[in-house]
Amino acid sequence: MATLAAAKVLTAVLDLAVSSSAASIAQRRRLMCRAAASRLVPHPPDLVRWVRREGGFVHPNITVSDRGPYGLGVVATGDIQPGSELIALPSHLPLFFERCPHNDDGGGHSTLMQLALRIPDELWSMRLGLRLLQERAAVDSFWWPYISNLPETYSVPIFFSGDDIKILHYAPLTHQVNKRCRFLLEFEKEIKLMLDNVSPRDHPFAGQDVNSSSLGWAMSAVSSRAFRLHGEVLSNDKKDIPMLLPLIDMCNHSFIPNARIFQEQNTNSQNMSIKVVADMQIKQDMPVLLNYGCLSNDIFLLDYGFVIPSNPHDHVELKYDESLLDATSLAAGISCSSFVSPADWQQEMLSRLNLWGDQAFRKVHLGGPGLIDGRLLAALRTLLSDDKETAEKHKLETLMTLSDDFPLGVSTEISALRTVIALCVVALESFPTKIMEDEAILKKEIPNSTKLAVQFRMQKKLMIIDVMRKLTQKVKVLAKLGSSAQG
Predict the structure, then answer these.
(1) How far apart are CA 25 and CA 140, in angstroms?
(2) Which of 96, 325, 326, 486 is the most exposed place for a label (fewest CB within 10 A)?
(3) What are the residues facing 58 on neighbouring strands?
């Protein structure tokens, strides 16, 4: 239960912010979150009209709609032909963390810069989130027509209840959720300490209080909407940085997109634009879909707040553990002493795979396009083989690739795959509920966060079963080859 403390506290902070939202601050836009409205304001400005007024382009057959299974998104109001330009944003419309904004007087942004430098790189979304909060607090923000169209709340796990985080039943994701919650709570304290003695002129949030609730909202807004494009980072270097792209970031995700986003190469041009172009015909009432990336459901839920059924890029994480491998191989009917006592040449191979030694990186996975983590597969093939010469003559990449070939022989390949199948059984049994139980829960009237948590764990189990099925088919084919060779 201790691991859930941070999430419970953050939820309590959010509830407190909601209950106190009736209070108002004259001439300021509040940074607190309310659960009552879907958008920050009940009737936000027309985003399409704003983009066009600011020199951007929006195809005449494009609108923003909440129809269809994807929810709010960009939708075609008429047929659009392949190659058509759908949206184009001039260089001044994207919102990103600038080193020194042209319209800033220096003080507020200097303080914001100091806060940004306290954020670890892995939580990059919080840096741009600070910039978003700064603009949300500003009365005359240029980006208010965009910001007012952002969701009031997000369905990411940092806003789940403690019980919903617990029923995820997946330690790697629970760890990341609690890590983010702890950061938000600690960062709130750092911000308060830094801003206590800041003059009103230098206050980056127009004097408003910033707590873990508003920080969580900003971080979620960025993680679920930002695209990484060419730009200038804090160190004055040029590389991909996160940007919020008005209207473009309302396009929903698909692994089979019908449009793509690209940026003009000349990033120094004042006329640089970011465009979305149709890759295929988009028929009337169809959504404009972009591919957010080949991501696992861990990332989709953690950063975007949704789960994709039958996600081909989903996987489960495991720790490479010699005792576990020894036990699972025995359960699969395979006797091999090399798991706990590898020969010198096998130790050398494991070292090359970074799976042996005090500094070894032992995190491996099952699932995804390759079905088996390449390092795990190469390790199993090596440990289950006694043919040193054959093993050493193969490139490491060959041993790490699951294909129709069997580099160290049919018998070794069968043993390796059966061991992985046994690992899948262990991973599946680590979930305390069955798929049928999950399906029964999803048929009930439950909160959306509970639904997402159950969908997440159910998809993990379905993915593991799919890996087992595919590997079992491979073992059957290999067994027939082995029988034919003996005959």
Answers:
(1) 15
(2) 486
(3) 87
Q: Which residues pair with 230 in a beta bridge?
A: 240
DSSP code for 286: P
User: Is the distance from CB of 304 to CB of 224 less than 8 angstroms?
Assistant: yes
- Of 25-39, 341-355, 379-393, 438-452, the poorest mean pLDDT is in 25-39
Token pair 């200097």 in the structure block, residue: 110
Handedness of CA 53, 258, 307, 7 (dihedral sign): negative
86 φ, ψ to 5°?
Answer: -95, -50
The predicted-structure confidence for 70-98, as pLDDT tens digits, reads as follows 678 999 999 999 999 999 999 899 998 87
Rounded to the nearest 10 degrees, the angle between the axes of helix 322-331 and helix 410-429 is: 100
Cα 18 from chain centroid (whole Å): 27
Strands 62-65 and 73-76 turn out to be: antiparallel
Phi/psi at 42 (5° precision): -60, -40
Phi-psi group of 106: left, alpha or beta (phi > 0 → left; psi -120 to 50 → alpha; rest → beta): left
- Work out the pLDDT band at 252, boundaries 50, 70, 90: very high
Q: Cβ distance 420 to 272 under 8 Å?
A: no
Can you tell me the distance from the alpha carbon of 287 to that of 276, in angstroms, rounded to the nearest whole number? 13
Q: Which of 44, 216, 54 is nearest to 130 (CA)?
A: 216
Which residue's structure tokens are 């709570």?
A: 185
User: CA-CA distance, 390 to 395, in Å (whole number)?
Assistant: 10
Query: What does DSSP assign to residue 289?
Result: E
Tokens of 50: 């704003």
Radius of gyration, alpha carbons of the chain: 26
Q: What is the pTM of this model?
A: 0.86
- Give 337's contacts (C-beta < 8 A, 6+ positions apart): none
pLDDT for 272 equals 65
Measured CA angle at 213 (ends 210, 215), to 5 deg: 60
